[in-house]
Automatic annotation (TrEMBL), chain A:
Keywords tagged on the record: Cell inner membrane, Cell membrane, Membrane, Transmembrane, Transmembrane helix
TM segment ranges: 56-76, 101-128, 149-170, 176-197
Top-rank lineage group of the source organism: Bacteria
Matching InterPro entries: PqiA-like, PqiA-PqiB_transport
Protein location: Cell inner membrane
Nucleotide-binding found in the keyword field: no
Provenance organism: Meridianimarinicoccus roseus
GO terms for cellular component: plasma membrane
Protein name: Paraquat-inducible membrane protein A
Pfam families: PqiA (PF04403)
Main location: membrane
TrEMBL record, chain B:
One of the Pfam families matching this protein, by short name: PqiA
InterPro entries in the record: PqiA-like
Organism whose genome encodes this protein: Meridianimarinicoccus roseus
Transmembrane segments annotated in the record for this chain: 56-80, 112-138, 159-181, 187-206
Superkingdom of the organism of origin: Bacteria
Keyword Transmembrane helix: yes
Keywords: Membrane, Transmembrane, Transmembrane helix
Protein name: Paraquat-inducible protein A
Amino acid sequence: MNAGAAHGTVAGRTARSAGLVGCLHCGLLAPMGETDCLRCGARLESRFRNSRQRVWAWWLAGLIVYVPANLYPMMITDTLLATYSSTIIGGAMDLVTHGDVFVGLIVLIASVMIPVGKFLAIAWVMIATRKLRPGGAHRLHRMYEVVEFIGRWSMIDVFVVAILAALVHLGSVAGIFPGLAAICFGASVIFTMLAALSLDPRMIWDAADPNAQDPSA
Amino acid sequence: MNDRSSDAIGPQAAPSHDLIACPQCDWLHDVGDVPTGTRARCVRCRTVLLAPRRGAAATIVALATGALILMVVAVSFPFLDIAAGGLRSSASVMDAALSFALASGRMAPLSVIVLALIVVLPVARLCGLIYALGPLALGRRARPYAAQAFRISMRLRPWAMAEIFIIGVAVALVKVSSLAAVGFGPAFWAFVGLVILVAAKDTILCERSLWRALDRAA
Ligand SMILES: [Zn+2]
Ligand SMILES: [Zn+2]
């Protein structure tokens, strides 16, 4: 449905090129230079200030803590026979080989493929927007939307450890304890979420628009 | 909260309230009244600009109130228990959040974060929505600070992770099912219900349409 799409006189161009700044939350427009939205009170920014630097800073912070997240144990299992500590990848592989293949794959996707894919996708969007051919924005924007939507689901792994460590206290028979990887991994998920939130999607469309000029540049 | 009839800000005329900039690509659209049940999409990037629904505020307030009640049940009753070899162990939602802090002081910050993601922020979101949209649902004037409450609720959206927690619980149950017999407490079912209500609420919630409605009720 394309109900009530562009049919006005100012439509058919970007708000910035019309000297306006649009509120990201309620959609209301204000003259360029206004700092707060009149309707909802949100801060108005035609384009996020220092978006690139902030994205790269959070991206790097997320990548740095992702390394110990994979080296330290995520979970330590105590049983009558042995004490066994597993890393993120090890725990998922255990599920695939000994337990449930389907659930193992979900964990593998959530805790390995999504974080790694997210680092690559954010870096790709950042590098590709330096020079984008006209019409190239659609695919890049789709990639950004997927990253923004899916990134928070990586937190599954932290919650799995939280509930297992709270639940499995069966005296000397079995006990489960969280490992240091949990806090590193949780921090990594939060940092990459902040990287995605610092990325201004309008930047992708500007990069593919030959008429877009940054008035502040 | 502003007066719709105010016609000028300084030398430049205030842009019309029908005008919307796409939040994803900045393209301008002149979108007047969109019929309820239909959607207006950005012509450039296809982002949904407006998707008003009949009685949206009332439905959202009803779903949020239900979810809030279920959250109270979910945090105050037993969540899960396991039994193996004559031994029993149980956990509440609070135990799950606090498990990192109990294991090691170094991981206490993670417990604070988990508690925020699965209880505090979802509750704050629900309260904010009920406070801001409640009067709209009853056809009354907006409450003071309704705009702030609604804005903060929407800003918290990515950080409220109740639905991710319940998937994590499902994965944990698969891991533990080979080790012990699992029993479900009332809090477990309350949490599942809460996730369903929150998901239903979020699918009908169109932020920009509700801002227009709040504006009219101010
Ligand atoms: Zn606004
Ligand atoms: Zn758009």
